[in-house]
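Example 3.2
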Amino acid sequence: MFSDILKNLRKARELTSDEVAKAVGVSGGAYRNYERGERSPSFETLIKLADFYGVSTDYILGHNEQSDPLAVYALDEEERKFFAGFLNKPHAVRKCVIQTFKPLFENFRFKVIDENGKEETEIFDNLFGLFIISISILLSNSTI
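Structure, written as C-alpha cells:
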C-alpha cells in the first residue's frame, strides 16, 4: 500500500522518481525501491516525503482516507493544478514566497462580484488570502 501511494502521488504530479528523490535528499535508486516496496524510508525521509507531497505521514502510510489535500476546496482544474504546483515546491521556497509578499498584501482591499452579482469588498488580512494572491503573482510570472 505504501509503495502504491508514493507512486500515485508522484504520477499525479507528473514528476520523475529522480525529481522526487532529489527533493527529499535520497538517491533515485532508493526512491524507486520505496515505490517497488523493496525498501522503507527512514522516519526523517518519510516526513520529508509527506512535506514534499503536501500530505500527512498517516496518508502516505495508508492510515488516512483523504487522498487529495485540495479536495476540501471547490477548485476547478486550472486552480487545482496551480495549487498542486505550489505545494510541490520545497517548504523553504513556499515560506520565502509568503514572507516576501506578506507586507505587500496586509489589509489589501479589492472588490469582488459574487455569483449573484452582489459586489463585496474583501480584506485580505489573513494568511490564506495572502497565500492565494502572492502565489498567483509569483507563479504566473516566473519559474521557481
